[in-house]
TrEMBL record:
Protein name per UniProt: catalase
PANTHER family given in the database record: CATALASE
Domain Catalase core: from-to ranges: 40-312
Top-rank lineage group of the source organism: Bacteria
GO terms for biological process, alphabetical: hydrogen peroxide catabolic process; response to hydrogen peroxide
Protein family according to the UniProt entry: Belongs to the catalase family.
Length: 313
């Protein structure tokens, strides 16, 4: 009898050890780590942020490249820049910058929530959430080391993060979906493609000396000032997968030999302050002609973001 209990206990612990984290548990994790009862409506990740609006202007011959009617004409754009993590006072010098977008034309909508890094720390939600749990926590250094040992993607993402400096302005940052979408070509055949937003003003970082001089809160004011001088523009490109590129792993870097298709330009024009800070940017909001990425993180994000959005309503 004693042995049966022991075997049962062992089986239960194996099941728990191998069970994957759920979107609800992930939302609980963010609320536990970053939630603030005094401010229940704010986001619990990418909390610090601000909004701007503008337009997407397609290239003239876009129909020769993609069958995505939303992109055929000018569309409205709402964008939110953010810093990763749930600290509303996070330093702008932190390396994780987010860029969320809504492209709308009254009939269809395409939402994005992109990052300045091209790769993520893991292929699965388990690894990514564990990484978010331990990174930057001095009491969890050992767990971070264990995670790094088990998953090379964690070290790769950290090393990559170290190469990112402090931007001169958010107008000088490239943003990446990491996920691989399936986008219809002009004949309706699906192409595997990541999407990137390349700053027209170039990717420019501060020198170490300059970075020491700027405070922790300069990027919002800087972008507001940039917008007073003219629009802040990004070129939107599809980056097509080569035959051997993984399409189901947001922690996998592709070689730099991929064909790019220019789709059009985001022209951001108006500073909107914190007006969209509680809006939901749902990556699964896709237009006709675009199918969801097949990796295991994309749908998980949609479910998690819907839960955190509901909780802060
Ligand atoms: C398992 C993986 C991930 C988890 C658990 C996660 C979790 C979250 C959560 C809870 C939010 C707040 C959503 C809200 O309440 O509105 C958020 C926002 C955000 N996430 Fe993720 N995320 C993941 C992966 C990613 C990836 C792969 C990217 C981009 C490549 C990304 C970029 C962003 C951005 C830019 C925002 C801010 C969106 C906004 O401005 O509203 N996240 N994330």
């Amino acid at each position: 009898m004693k042995y049966i209990f022991l075997i049962q206990a062992l089986l239960v612990s194996i099941v728990f050890a191998t069970e994957s984290i759920t979107p609800t548990q992930t939302a609980d994790f963010f609320y536990h780590k970053f939630g603030d009862k005094a401010d229940p409506h704010r986001k619990v990740n990418h909390t610090k942020g601000f909004c701007v609006s503008g337009e997407f202007l397609p290239r003239k011959d876009i129909r020769e490249f993609v069958k995505v009617p939303l992109l055929y004409t000018k569309s409205e754009v709402l964008a939110r820049y953010s810093i990763g993590g749930g600290n509303p006072k996070a330093s702008d010098k932190s390396s994780a910058h987010g860029f969320a977008l809504k492209l709308k034309n009254g009939k269809q909508e395409w939402d994005f929530a992109t990052l300045n890094s091209v790769i993520n720390s893991g292929k699965t939600p388990d690894v990514i959430v564990k990484f978010l749990e331990v990174i930057g926590d001095p009491t969890k250094k050992k767990e971070l080391q264990e995670l790094i040992k088990k998953y090379p993607s964690v070290k790769r993402a950290m090393d990559y993060g170290d190469t990112i400096g402090v931007p001169v302005s958010l107008a000088n940052v490239q943003f990446n979906t990491q996920h691989v979408y399936r986008v219809s070509d002009s004949d309706g055949k699906l192409m595997n493609a990541k999407i990137i937003f390349v700053p027209q003003a170039g990717i420019i970082e501060l020198s170490e000396k300059e970075a020491k001089k700027v405070g922790d809160d300069f990027l919002e004011k800087r972008l507001e000032a940039d917008l007073k001088k003219g629009s802040v523009n990004y070129y939107m490109y599809l980056v097509l997968a080569n035959p051997k590129d993984p399409v189901d792993d947001i922690s996998a870097a592709w070689e730099n030999t991929n064909k790019k298709i220019f789709l059009g330009t985001l022209e951001l024009k108006t500073f909107k302050g914190n007006s969209c800070n509680t809006d939901l940017f749902l990556p699964g909001m896709l237009p006709n002609g675009v199918q969801a990425p097949v990796d295991s993180v994309f749908e998980f994000r949609n479910q998690t973001y819907s839960i955190t959005h509901q909780r802060r309503e």
